[in-house]
Amino acid sequence: MTKRVDLEPALRKLHELSRSDGDIGGEYWESVSKLLRTAYSFAGRVKELEAELALVRAPRPQVLMSYNALRAVARDVFETEADGDAWLHSPHSMLDEISPRQVAKTLAGRQRVLEILVAIKYGLRV
Question: Phi, psi at residue 92, to the nearest 5°?
Fold first, then answer.
């Protein structure tokens, strides 16, 4: 695990530089300080996303699911039976413009459709 760096000494030094360099230099060092804080916060967020991605990419057991169970998941994701059924019967770009209903005729297809539904529900990348 990577140790988090204490930015306070660097930020204090940048603040000192900004106060000693006049208006133009001061603006520059303040910008550098802001950029450093932003990069630091992004680094933390990247770590969180990497951990989340590792969970998503982890091998998962095949889900033995009937089409009716998949239909119930679609209803849950889209909140109504009509909307769930409409999604299942519509061509989908992630399924080579084939409807999820057609793809779900095989176990691997049902697994793929379930992955897409879970991604939609929780805002994950597929």
Answer: -125, 135
